[in-house]
Amino acid sequence: MSGGVTIIVPVWNRRDLLESLLGCLRALTYPIAELIVVDDGSDDGSAELAESLGAHAIRMPAHGGFAKAVNRGIRESHTPLVAIVNNDVQPEPDWLEKLVAALEPDDWFATGRILQASHPDRIDATYDLLCRGGASWRAGHGVQDDAPFRERRRITSAPLTAALFRAELFEKIGLLDERFESYLEDVDFGLRCALAGLRGCYAPHAVARHQGSATLGRWHPETTRLIARNQVFVLAKHYSTRMYWRYAWPIVVAQTLWGLVALRHGRAWSWLRGKAQGIAQFAEFRNSSDDDRLAEILVENEREIRRLQKLAGADSYWTLYFLLTLGGAK
Fold it and tell me: For 169-220, how does the pLDDT look when each residue is reduced to its tens digit (9 = 90+)?
């Protein structure tokens, strides 16, 4: 594809990870038209490192979250394709080449098979799925890297861990919702794409490795608070009053089970704070989607969750969710 690719790397400290990533990006077999590092208020010299290694560094005036940093990078890009890559990712040399090759004319984005850096025989991320209860699953997270995740698929939502987008998509759908700050902004964006009938592809032969929540930590209190809050934001933004009644029980089950997981990790208070903050801002997000189209997407997503759980092994969260919601969406 002519015109080239801009790679956007949002960073908030962890200069060591950025240096490792930039080394990987220099080894890519597909040429990069521009590399933009958006420094979201780092105090460890990340921007200076990026410039010393040939990247265009944009310094944000203050820490504003992942979504705001990515949006700034998108606004500064001038190529038909834009790749967004977290600083704790290590793409294989042919990662970008294979994503670009995987894009069919009717694909708006592409994401690959992302493995856990600490356990490369296990999946970290593939594509995102959202259940009726408003909880999302990064399909395959934590399970063995095996056959179910080796097949190319059409998808509706790509994790912004490491993904490629047509720049025109952001003109059609809009940029990331900066009110999410960090976490689930990609789930919201993917849902907006799906509602507009714009899909992408999962290209499993494009491989990267991901450390995961490297800046704060997977169960850091702030991580837990943001996820718990942003789950409410997703529900507030896309569900109508009729949808709340229609899916009241799955919502209660999905959100309560996630709270119990937070409790198991000693983060019950962070979960409660996040839910309280989400409820306090609920009215700010009221802008419901088309009920019938949204229901169709959620049912399709739940079927895919059930399929993968059956093929790759069921985890306790989804086992309980489907048990308590009487089998889930059929």
Answer: 999 999 999 999 999 999 999 999 999 999 999 999 999 999 875 555 567 9
The DSSP bridge partners found for residue 10 are 38
Residue 2's pLDDT band (cuts 50, 70, 90): very low
Query: 22: which 2 tokens?
Result: 């930039």
Both tokens assigned to 29 = 């077999």
Helices within the chain (DSSP H only): 15-26, 46-52, 66-76, 95-102, 167-173, 185-195, 221-238, 241-246, 248-264, 268-280, 291-312, 316-324
Where do the domains of the chain lie? Answer: 5-210, 221-324
Partner residues linked to 201 by β-bridges: 110, 154
For residues 116-136, give the mean pLDDT: 96
Sign of torsion over alpha carbons 325, 276, 283, 71: negative
In the CATH scheme, what is the homologous superfamily, with its name and number, of domain 5-210? Spore Coat Polysaccharide Biosynthesis Protein SpsA; Chain A (3.90.550.10)
Model pLDDT, residue 214: 53
Look-up of token digits 């306790």: 316
Between the alpha carbon of residue 296 and those of residues 24, 45, 159, 221, 302, the distances in Å are 40, 47, 21, 34, 10
Q: Is 193 helix (H, G, I), strand (E, B) or coil?
A: helix
Q: Taking the C-alpha atoms of 316, 322, 326 and 328 in order, what is their torsion angle to the nearest 10 degrees? A: 180
89 forms bridges with which residues in the sheet?
A: 210
User: Whats the size of the chain, residue-wise?
Assistant: 330
CB 11 within 8 A of CB 39: yes
What pTM does this model have? 0.94
